[in-house]
Amino acid sequence: MTPVAPWVRTRLRAAPGAAFALTLLVALTAALAAAFPRAVDRYEDAGLRQAVEEATPRRTTVQLWAPEPGPILPQRQREQALTPDILRAQYAKALKTAERPLTPDRDQSSYGVRNTEALAVPDPWLPRPSGLPARVALAAQNGLADHARLRAGRLPRAAATATAQTDRVEAAVTAETAKALRIRVGSVIHVPAARHSSLVVTVTGILDPREPEGAYWTTQPLLRKPSLVREPDQNGEPDTYWEGALLLPPAAAPAMLGTDGHPVRYWQLAPATAALTAHDLSRMNSAIAALEAGPGLAKVRAFTDRSADASTDLDDVVTEYAHLRSGIAPLVAVAASGTATVAAVVLLMAGGLAADRRRSELALLRARGGSLRGVTGRLLAETSVLAVPAGALGLGAALLAVPAGRRTYAVAAAVAVTALACAALPVRAAVKHQVVQLHGAREDLTVVRPSRRRTVAELTLLVLASGAVFALRSRGTDTQDSNEFVALAPVLVGIIAALVLVRLYPLPLRRLARPAGRLRGAVGHLSLARAGRTSVSTVLPLLALLTALTTAAFGGSVLAGVADTRDRAALLTTGADARIEATRPLPDRLATEIRDSGSGVREVTPVSIAYQAKPEDGEQTVPLAGADPEAYARLAASTGLGAFPAAELKHPAHAPLPALASPAVADRYGTRPFPVRLEDGSHVTVRIALVRGLTPAVSGTDFLVVDRAGLGTRPARPTALLVTGDHLDGGALRRAAGVGADVRLRSEARAAYVDSPLQSGAERVYAAAVAAGAGYAVLALLLALVRAAPERTALLARLRTMGLTRAQGRRLLVLEALPQALLAAAGGALTGWAAIRLLSPGIDLTTIALAAATTDAPPGSTELRTDTLSLLLPALSVLVLATGIAAGQAWWTGRRGSVKELRAGDSR
Question: What is the C-alpha to C-alpha distance for residues 716 and 698, in angstroms, rounded to an integer?
Fold first, then answer.
């Protein structure tokens, strides 16, 4: 008896090309889906860690401290509370009190005793900049030998039983403290004491910190680096004195009780930066709150002191980062949702293509008694054999390609892709073959009327999508619900457009078919008739194309808007391509040297700026800039910062100086002449003749610009040079400007706005998601064309037997594909434009563009605007691709014989 080959193996062998294509599609889609959340986690975690590192340990370290033991306690008990053994045990408990994800960095965390007040020491050899004695703070911190290297001398030692009566101790100082306070090994410092004349501190060693920027040294910066303190005296003049730290051994801490420095015990918990993750922000805030004023602090008080307290700015740093992330995440989610929708549609189209290819086979199985459950079960097994290993392969590739990030979301995304790929073919087959039928009716778009169920479903989707877009426009992006609307809005707009266009598509075809029939030649009429016989299932490829085009237009506009915002903000900061400015007048020859330096300079505009000019001799100051009207007008016009006619600003003889003013200054002083007192005490009379919101020389809302020739000789001397040019050499400009001049390049100012991995990572992921969506859109177009390829090939073969030439065949297929391509291209461009117009009130690009900005963005520059290139280029690409594939198919078919195609067509 001949064994029967298993169903799955037989069907896979029957179509190896389709099996391989499905496997590749699922593996690629699963890899992209799994990599996306891990890529987002990676740049968000990197952004959080950088934010914590840049905030400095002084802000991010959790500082627990307890005051000096009360005087009512026995002296021995007070001294015992400051001993290293007691503090070490309390430190170990404090480490355990911190709740995850607040993980202390044990290498940088510390504990000890320090004075809260620096004490003035009478030693005359210490430096006294203004006659005041230097002050020193005593600190006994653990782990000094592990965190410092000896430059000279030895580490300090302590007597076995240091008490409040101890009058001699040893100490070490850092090299910076030693240099500033002129301390050497063997120096003796007399610290005032309460119980005896003084506490004699002998310096035995000079240290170099191993990690100067680590939390061990920078949580209390005075331990590493002395400070020159300035305080006003009785006459308001500044008095200065040096303040430094003497590092005692931990065992000598009880000796501080004999001073008036009010010693406190402290335990410093530095967060482990490498352990911080962005998805744990809410838990992080809870853990910090618990230590600052919650159960954690209660535990600390239980094993230290009832008056113990805690302080940190880590919660503020985390909150600032969370605000930055909340402004960026919705924009990334837009690209993610659009790409996910297009990918899902492509998977569904792949299943639909397989179901259509095997329609006759499945109909025959059902006609011969095959149950619907049995047929769909075998189809599920057939696709699962391919999709499950492919999904696992894609997941593994994503985990290797993006090693950081959570696995849970990656696995869930890969599983969702695999499940969709497995179910697409069986579900489509189950829907098509519920009723046993051998021959299906025509499903032409212009013939089949939509059912009532479809109409109700489309109207429901239309109402939901419209409500979502309206809610977004009304509420903006300030809430979490609105953020979800931002992510889904372009997809919803694409759904609306796809449904509307599919409904409207048959109307022009019906109107054009009758006039085309009167034309000479059959190609035009036949192409319209063929376009009208497109299957009603065209909504899926159209949805894929519209969603991809909308996402591409939206994403391109976002990226272009971010770049334009940064360019504009950088231009406002510098006023030109480069700005050279000093507090004193610049040499007269400098402008010529900069112009002739050959470092890409095109023009140099000298400007004299008096930032403390006082109109009407009042107390309010207004920056006044003096410049040559012709050169300054050219600069304003080229930069787009308040262009004006130069003649309006030229100084007339024996008349007030015409001035260009900001709107705020114009409203304040009007158009009447008024005096302005300059910084050198001289006066000029100005009259506001022009009003502009921006000007290159001065940023801000208050400014006056006048003709430099109308100022006095001294006020007219330039203090700034505004340089324009291409590819300016910053090094050459700085060398020419010399010491004392501040040189700022527009390109450097622009780069400063992107200082967080959160911004750069989000832009890269956004661009990658848009590119992936465009790739899936092309794949959807190819699947739609492949689906119709056999029928078109057979049609051309039949028409060739009737005398159709190859050129006419190419025109036929191109004209047949042209209506759908035009529909997708025009619909995509229109949908992208509508999505941007509808959603722009709820989108603010400030966060992603200017997260590190210290200057306000120009008004209106952070609004989402339509980028023409992003709108038209994808649409034109779809049009060219669709017609190109149709022409290529006609050319390929013309090179082959007609017998096989005729038989293939007959078999259908």
Answer: 16
